[in-house]
Specification:
Length: about 180
């Protein structure tokens, strides 16, 4: 099956997004505390593709060696996995992209994989803050000379689900 990988910092809402895609309340375990997901988990959300949930990037409270191991594994996965159709790069829409986000974007770009940016927790933003969030992401992409689709999502309201699935289907069917 084609795979769709979710990357992003701890607490950004990776596991929550899987539940949105699967229309299940707690298929993937979520937590208000960062560092919840500690292993790579594969979920079959429908009959066309598998979603891969990964530990959060740059999580400070995990031991250095554990973090290095995850990041090595993730790097290997993104570079080598034959059935990986698209990377979903999640960022919290409330915050400017961090160093970890930029490093991840650069790495995904270098891997040559198709990617989408997912701006999570959009329910927490007003109109003006939303515009700012979109332009921050556009700037970060410009700096790397990449042009990925951007989808705003909310695990609370389900916003962005259909749009995201349309993009994902497009990549999945072209692998
Ligand atoms: P790790 O497994 O630690 O890497 O975190 P994660 O990226 O899987 O985040 P998770 O899905 O566990 O969500 C973290 C927290 O953010 C939880 O308290 C979620 O309820 C909350 N959250 C996630 N998505 C949204 C969203 O779209 N809106 C709001 N308001 N809260 C969200
Ligand atoms: Mg998680």
């Amino acid at each position: 099956m084609p795979e769709v990988a979710l990357l992003g910092r701890s607490n950004v809402g990776k596991s929550s997004l899987i539940n949105v895609l699967a229309r299940r309340r707690s298929l993937a375990k979520t937590s208000a505390h960062p560092g919840k997901t500690t292993t790579f988990n594969l979920y079959c959300v429908d009959h066309d593709f598998v979603v891969v949930d990964a530990p959060g990037l740059g999580y400070a409270r995990t031991s250095r060696s554990e973090r290095d191991r995850w990041e090595r594994e993730l790097a290997l996965y993104v570079r080598k996995r034959e059935r990986l159709a698209v990377v979903l790069m999640l960022m919290d829409s409330r915050h400017a992209p961090t160093e970890v986000d930029r490093d991840t974007m650069r790495f995904v770009h270098d891997s040559g994989r198709p990617a989408l940016i997912v701006l999570t927790k959009s329910d927490k933003l007003s109109g003006n803050a939303r515009t700012k969030a979109l332009s921050r992401v556009a700037n970060a992409m410009n700096a790397l000379a990449v042009e990925w689709p951007v989808v705003e999502t909310s695990a609370k309201t389900g916003r962005g689900r259909e749009e995201l699935l349309e993009w994902v289907d497009r990549f999945v069917s072209s692998i």
